[in-house]
């Protein structure tokens, strides 16, 4: 019995005391209450209110084109003897561009002249035969009336006369063809000098001295200023954009902004794309053709716009840091629409009047407080 008592005192009692201590029996009681977490305060953040804009600036892509463009070629074949211009030169109408070596053309002209002389000699011979046959024909015709020759003899003479007459007509046609050939070959001599069809810039040169120029091959490309920007607009703008209107234009590669005056509006809408073409004359005369351009038009529309620098991108998602009424930062995912200059349209996720972080995005954290 004493052993059992000792066992209870030395084993059960300590275990019971440990359990009571762990249960907090020997600790002072703390009344229950709400524990408020301490929030991190972030400094150096600038915010901006989300505003509804009644007028939006829309961007459309376009291309700069010249008023006129000519691909200069030649109608005669020969070696290039002189190239009087280089790419980038401004040329006047009638100015010499390229001279083709005329020696081959002159040789063809001389050959054509000899053909004309030979055809004229054949004509003289045919004319002499015709006149002799005509005299014989007229004499036999009188003799036939007098009965001095038989009809068979007259028919033979008449056939010879008709043959001489046909030969004369054929030789005359041959002379005319030889003369036309001479005129055509002689005209080729004038094509040996290629001159500018209008005032403009040389934008491409495809030949050098010594190259062979072939008929139809493009030797030079000229562009005539002033330059225009051509762009497509959705059909909802039809009737709203008219000749005389001014639009803002930005040449992206040149980082240059200018204006353009609408000079032509396509009178019909493309049924497949639901767009129509507009041409506007650029105010900046130093722009050349082929540049990518952005054209900006204003449109009345109630939309939410935020600065592009306020957009926080995480993986394939787009979000903004929103400052709630109590100053707490929250990351909110949004759906974006069109880009309009330095701003972007918000389709969903934000409401008018909410504040978003526009500077210091790298400092923002979810649940933090915005300081001062």
UniProtKB/TrEMBL annotation:
<keyword id="KW-0175">Coiled coil</keyword>
<dbReference type="GO" id="GO:0015562">
    <property type="term" value="F:efflux transmembrane transporter activity"/>
</dbReference>
<dbReference type="InterPro" id="IPR058625">
    <property type="entry name" value="MdtA-like_BSH"/>
</dbReference>
<dbReference type="Pfam" id="PF25917">
    <property type="entry name" value="BSH_RND"/>
</dbReference>
<feature type="coiled-coil region">
    <location>
        <begin position="109"/>
        <end position="143"/>
    </location>
</feature>
<feature type="transmembrane region" description="Helical">
    <location>
        <begin position="7"/>
        <end position="26"/>
    </location>
</feature>
<comment type="similarity">
    <text>Belongs to the membrane fusion protein (MFP) (TC 8.A.1) family.</text>
</comment>
<feature type="domain" description="Multidrug resistance protein MdtA-like C-terminal permuted SH3">
    <location>
        <begin position="304"/>
        <end position="363"/>
    </location>
</feature>
<dbReference type="Pfam" id="PF25967">
    <property type="entry name" value="RND-MFP_C"/>
</dbReference>
<dbReference type="Pfam" id="PF25876">
    <property type="entry name" value="HH_MFP_RND"/>
</dbReference>
<dbReference type="Pfam" id="PF25954">
    <property type="entry name" value="Beta-barrel_RND_2"/>
</dbReference>
<dbReference type="GO" id="GO:1990281">
    <property type="term" value="C:efflux pump complex"/>
</dbReference>
<dbReference type="InterPro" id="IPR058627">
    <property type="entry name" value="MdtA-like_C"/>
</dbReference>
<feature type="domain" description="Multidrug resistance protein MdtA-like barrel-sandwich hybrid">
    <location>
        <begin position="70"/>
        <end position="216"/>
    </location>
</feature>
<feature type="domain" description="Multidrug resistance protein MdtA-like alpha-helical hairpin">
    <location>
        <begin position="117"/>
        <end position="183"/>
    </location>
</feature>
<keyword id="KW-0813">Transport</keyword>
<protein>
    <submittedName>
        <fullName>Efflux RND transporter periplasmic adaptor subunit</fullName>
    </submittedName>
</protein>
<keyword id="KW-0472">Membrane</keyword>
<dbReference type="InterPro" id="IPR006143">
    <property type="entry name" value="RND_pump_MFP"/>
</dbReference>
<dbReference type="InterPro" id="IPR058792">
    <property type="entry name" value="Beta-barrel_RND_2"/>
</dbReference>
<feature type="domain" description="CusB-like beta-barrel">
    <location>
        <begin position="229"/>
        <end position="299"/>
    </location>
</feature>
<dbReference type="InterPro" id="IPR058624">
    <property type="entry name" value="MdtA-like_HH"/>
</dbReference>
<keyword id="KW-0812">Transmembrane</keyword>
<keyword id="KW-1133">Transmembrane helix</keyword>
């Amino acid at each position: 019995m004493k052993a059992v008592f000792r066992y209870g005192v030395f084993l059960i009692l300590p275990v019971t005391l440990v359990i009571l201590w762990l249960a907090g029996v020997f600790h002072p009681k703390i009344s229950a209450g709400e524990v408020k977490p301490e929030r991190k305060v972030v400094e150096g953040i600038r915010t901006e209110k989300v505003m509804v804009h009644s007028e939006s600036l829309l961007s459309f892509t376009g291309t700069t084109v010249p008023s006129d463009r000519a691909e200069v070629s030649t109608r005669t074949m020969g070696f290039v003897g002189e190239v009087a211009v280089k790419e980038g030169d401004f040329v006047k109408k009638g100015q010499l561009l390229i001279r083709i070596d005329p020696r081959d053309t002159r040789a063809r002209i001389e050959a054509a002249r000899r053909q004309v002389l030979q055809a004229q000699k054949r004509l003289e011979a045919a004319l002499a035969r015709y006149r002799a046959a005509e005299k014989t024909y007229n004499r036999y015709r009188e003799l036939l009336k007098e009965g001095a020759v038989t009809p068979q003899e007259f028919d033979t003479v008449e056939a010879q006369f008709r043959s001489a007459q046909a030969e004369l007509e054929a030789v005359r046609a041959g002379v005319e063809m030889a003369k036309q050939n001479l005129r055509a070959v002689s005209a080729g001599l004038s094509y040996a000098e290629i001159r500018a069809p209008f005032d403009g810039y040389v934008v491409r040169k495809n030949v050098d001295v010594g190259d062979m120029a072939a008929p139809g091959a493009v030797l030079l490309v000229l562009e005539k200023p002033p330059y225009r920007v051509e762009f497509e607009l959705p059909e909802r703008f039809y009737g709203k954009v008219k000749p005389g209107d001014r639009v803002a234009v930005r040449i992206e590669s040149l980082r240059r902004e200018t204006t353009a005056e609408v000079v032509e509006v396509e009178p019909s809408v493309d049924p497949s794309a639901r767009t129509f073409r507009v041409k506007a004359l650029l105010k900046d005369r130093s722009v050349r053709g082929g540049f990518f351009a952005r054209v900006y038009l204003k449109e009345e529309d109630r939309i939410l716009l935020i600065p592009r620098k306020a957009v926080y991108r995480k993986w394939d998602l787009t979000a903004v840091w929103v400052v709630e009424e109590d100053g707490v930062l929250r990351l909110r995912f949004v759906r974006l629409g069109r880009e309009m200059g330095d701003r972007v349209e918000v389709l969903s996720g934000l409401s008018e009047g909410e504040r978003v972080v526009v500077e210091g995005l790298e400092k923002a954290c979810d649940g933090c407080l915005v300081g001062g």
